[in-house]
Amino acid sequence: MLGKNLLKHQSKPERVADQAWEYLTNAVNSAGDSVKHAARGTARSARRTGSHLTSNAGDRMGAVTDEARVRASRAYDALAGRKPGLPWAWLVGAGLVGAALAWAASTASRAALARAEQERSAADELEYVDVDRANSPVRVDTA
C-alpha cells in the first residue's frame, strides 16, 4: 500500500521511466533465460559432435550476454538521466599520439637547424684576402 501511494506522487516522466525500466529488466531477464536455455541445448549437442563446438558456442553466448548487460546498463543510465562517461582510453591514446608527433617534429627541426649551422660555418671558413694592402700575397696588375 505504501508503494502505491509513493507512485501516485511521481511526475509523469518518472512514471514513464519506471515503466520503461520494468519493461527493460523483464526483457533482459527473459533474454538471459532464453540464452541460458539455448546454451544448454547447444552444449548437449556439441558434446556429441566434439568439444571444440562447445567452446565456440559458449564464447558466443557469453559475448551476447555481456553485450545485453552493457546495453541494459546504458539504457538504465539514459533513463535515469545520467550522461555517458568520457572515453578516457581514446583520449589518452590521442594524447600519446600527439606527444609522439610533437617529439618527431622537434627532433627533425633540430636536425635541420644543425645541418644549416654546419653549412653556414663551412661558408664562413673562406679566407678573404685584401689586395689593397702593401704586403698582400696577391698583386693586382693595374698596368
Report what the structure shows.
It is a single chain. This protein has 143 residues and is mostly helical. Helices cover 78% and strands 0% of the residues. It has helices spanning 2-8, 12-49, 51-79, 88-124. Helix 2 packs antiparallel against helix 3 (51-79). It is elongated. The mean pLDDT is 76.
Report the C-alpha radius of gyration, rounded: 39 Å
Number of helices: 4
Mean pLDDT metric = 76
Largest sheet: none
Percent of residues in beta strands: under 5%
What class, by secondary structure content? mainly alpha
Topology as a string of helices (H) and strands (E): HHHH
Low-confidence stretches: none
Overall geometry comes to elongated
Q: Span between N and C termini?
A: 129 Å
User: What's the count of strands?
Assistant: 0
As a percent range, the share of helical residues equals: over 70%
Write the layout of secondary structure elements.
Layout: H1 2-8, H2 12-49, H3 51-79, H4 88-124
List keywords for this structure.
143 residues, mainly alpha, 4 helices, 78% helix, elongated
Outline of the structure:
The chain is mostly helical.
